[in-house]
Amino acid sequence: xxxxxxxxxxxxxxxxxxxxxxxxxxxxxxxxxxxxxxxxxxxxxxxxxxxxxxxxxxxxxxxxxxxxxxxxxxxxxxxxxxxxxxxxxxxxxxxxxxxxxxxxxxxxxxxxxxxxxxxxxxxxxxxxxxxxxxxxxxxxxxxxxxxxxxxxxxxxxxxxxxxxxxxxxxxxxxxxxxxxxxxxxxxxxxxxxxxxxxxxxxxxxxxxxxxxxxxxxxxxxxxxxxxxxxxxxxxxxxxxxxxxxxxxxxxxxxxxxxxxxxxxx
Length: 265
Known about the structure:
Layout: E1 4-13, E2 16-26, E3 31-35, H1 42-50, E4 57-62, E5 65-66, H2 72-77, E6 80-82, H3 95-103, H4 111-116, H5 119-138, H6 154-166, E7 172-176, H7 184-199, E8 203-207, H8 211-217, E9 220-225, E10 228-233, H9 235-239, H10 242-249
Parallel strand pairs: 3-8, 3-9, 6-7, 7-8
Antiparallel strand pairs: 1-2, 1-4, 4-5, 9-10
């Protein structure tokens, strides 16, 4: 069974069709990437999947259950978690505390128990911290556990956001341009971590402009342009697809995007 299925999903903003009758599925295992020129509808598509926008029509199914139009917190509680292109961290907290915030989605003791410092709450807090430290080690930030998020490099902040997303034990993680602002070495490190996330059993769906990262990391690629899906397949298949070459890649996998628009997407 597919982890995620989109069936004829459309989103209109007045007379503008940002996502136009898009259908595709995301396999339970591996990494799937969504690519396309600026303004193609990628970010809107992620907002529809994660509940930040309702579709105008169509259906979205997660692990066989329809989640169309559910609020973001309800989508996240079901195991579908999203990161953002613009890093959204608690800068006054340490890296460890940031990850613990993500982990508390799964705590059970409750507010009264936490305030009263009951044995159950203390035990749960130890488990939360242990899991948070494991995740910092997983993304290579173990040595920064006590550093404030504001003091991390931009690349380290991207890794911290990823660790915080993983703290919720998602079945599917949406990565919104995770390589934005990273240098080549940081992008290579990120690629390895994304592959490790998938190999550990979490499905990965990402939007990315870094074609080198996409081609080296993704198992399958979905290409959108002007809100419509124009191609889907393995990285090699997509790279050789004439429609993709014409719309986006310009004949090579590292060619610049075709156009720039006021809106992201």
